[in-house]
Structure formats: C-alpha cells, structure tokens
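Sample 1 of the test manifest.
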Amino acid sequence: MAIGILRLHNLFAVVMLSGIYSLISAGLFVTMDAVDVAFTEAAVGGGISTVLMLGTLALTTDREKTPLANLQIVPLFVVCITGAALIYGTLDMPSYGDPQAPIHQHVADRYIAEAPSATSVPNIVTAVLASYRGYDTMGELTVIFTAGIGVMLLLGAGTRRRKD
Amino acid sequence: MRRHLVLRVITKLLMPFILLFALYVQFHGDFGPGGGFQAGVIFGAGFILYALVYGVGNARRVAPDSVIRVFIAAGLLLYVGVGFAGLILGGKFLDYNVLAHDPVHGQHLGILLVEFGVGTTVAATMITIFFTFAGRGRDGS
C-alpha cells in the first residue's frame, strides 16, 4: 500500500489509500488490545485527517506535479541507511507481550495495581492520561489549542483582508 | 448539494446519534474505551459531516465562529483551572486529591473535568480547522 501511495500521481487516490491504511491500523490496534489507541486512530486518522486532506485538495489541485525523472543517488542512500538502522534497532526489542520487557519493570505495575482503587476510574488508560500524566495531557491540549489558533491566523486572517 | 436527497436525509437522521455517541464516549471514558480526545473528535466530525452535506455557510450558522473560538480557549482554561484549583485548595498543581473531601472522589472529579476540557478544545479546534479550510475556497478566488 505504501508503494502504491508512492507510485500514484492522482492525489485523491493517495488520500483515500492513506485513510484505508489508518482504518487497517485501527483494526491492528484492536487485535493488540489497545482499544483507546484504535479509537483515536479510526476517528482522527481515518476520519478527520482524510476530510482535511480532501479539503486541501479542493483548495489546491488533485494532480501531483511530474517528479524529477533522473534517479537521485544521495537521498536514496540516506533513506536506505536510515531504514537499515531502524530495522537493526528493532532486533533488540523484546517480543510483544513479554512481561520481562523494560517498559513493564518501571511504573506500569504500580499503575495497574493502584489506579482503579486510587482514582475509582476502571479504565486505567484514562486514569494514567488524566491523573498520573496530567502534565503531558495538558501539553498535548496546548498543542491542539496552538494548532487551532495557528490555522485561524494563517488561513482565516488572509480571507478577511481580501474582503476589505 | 441541493439534489442529494438521500445524503441530506441520512445526515439529519445520523446527526443526533453522532453527537450523543460523542457525549457517551466523553462521560463514559472512565469505564470504557474513549475519553476527551476521542469524544472531541467525534463531536467535531458530526459538525464536519453537517458542513459537508449542507454547506459551510449553514454549518457556520449553527456553530458561529465567535462561539467556537470561545470554546477553544474555554477547554484549555478548564484544564488549567482544575490544575490551579488544586493549587489553591492546598495541593500541588493538577493534584486532584484535594478537590473533594475524599481523595478518591477528588481524583474522579478531577479526571472528569479535565477530560471535559480536553473534549471541548479538541471539538472546537477540529470544527475551526475544517471551517477555515473549507470556507477559504468560497471567499477567495
């Protein structure tokens, strides 16, 4: 599918393919028991961003400009090296669901043990997000706030000036 | 979109359920999957669907820019306000234990309020971003 996205020049089809990709990853997250993440991926990746990309296409064009014909050696080299390094990095990763993985040795046990009783919130994901990681969530909310303000300033102000 | 009768009728039928489901995800996030972020996105998606089918102009009449802008800031202010409420009541910043008489109830209340702040800002931001994107082509060239 990624190769298909790369090869296609019709941007409408590219947007649709990436939306389908998001939906498939949401299904993947469900099979990995990460329901909250799957929910977000389906709503944001499959829904909102597809609509926003289509809106952008409506503003610009749905055909890609013809790319450079000759093969670019240096970018290809950089991409290959980075990809190889990333794959090499995954070799060290603990297998999925391994209880001895480093991530389960730190604070996860404490969260699972005490989050339901300390917060009376049965969904541990919500408890960790809103309470234990309250600062992080506040930062994320600030990012979204800033994004909204930025879009308003960049796109909204331009149209108003044109009307005057 | 004057002629798409099926789309218009189905949108009208689905709208209340989408918004209701968003509220369910918002306030049931403590017990099931979901939370403020997902609920905000679903709530925003409901408005975006309306705008897609009935036009941005009509959707803007339902959700005027001035109101949406207030909501963007209000959600973040609610979140930070809960943080400072903990500070004023004698705890640390974003410390929910002091919000109620019982630390567990305080935690629950804090999480609920904070998630509601997240949902408000996310929904309003999504709606604003879509309206500015979709409204631009019409006003401009």
